[in-house]
Amino acid sequence: MRSKLFQFLGLGVLASVGMLAAPTAWAAPVTSFSTQPVTDANAVADDPNLLGKILNLMTVNVGGNDWTNSALRIQLTTGQIYNATNASGTDASPNSALWGIPTLRNGKYDTFVNSKGTGATPDDNPTAATLLGTLNADGSPGPLPALGLTTNGATLLSAQWGNLVGGETGIFSVGRVTLSPDATGTFIGLTQDSGSGGVVTTFSGNIAGGVMTLVPEPTALGLVGVACAGGLVRRRRTQAA
Predict the structure, then answer these.
(1) What are the φ/ψ torsions at residue 110 (nearest 5 degrees)?
(2) Higher pLDDT, 145 or 230
(3) In terms of pTM, does the model score above 0.70?
């Protein structure tokens, strides 16, 4: 009988030397963002505050490895982060079954994090994730969000999340952020997978006009000396039946 043992491990500070020392066979996971204006008439009818907002869909590519966790910190200088105040349980547990119900159709544009979704459209059927903590401005780990990911009109989002379910390989979505069209600011984040060996792959970028745009990371190092929050690492243990 095969079983899995999952553990939350605290990872130390990782400098550029750590990244360069990683096994050459490992391909670092790639995080990307696709952007589209909210044009769903039904969603806007259920929440007129959505009109003109910008959806940023967060996607990871881990190849043949298994995604373990990601983190994201957004700090706006102008504009706001959208929160679907009429939606329930979407901080890290989106329920796409509710998105076809009148009065709840704006839930797909809520700002939330998730486990594996198809990453193709706002209707990509994301699954629940586990909130692990937050990400401080210097890249160090922070405590769990006190009141969920964000509130309506907020200018800060900070979260680290993962999942204990295997098979999260390939390319898929892990979260979405809906911003006002006047939103400007910056963001940082990280991604790990089962092949990382404790090495954090970081990313950062800028926000303008509600659009999140990545800044190329030199040699994929990103934030040098960043301290990762508690990583989610899988270890498999096989026992004879």
Answers:
(1) -65, 160
(2) 145
(3) yes
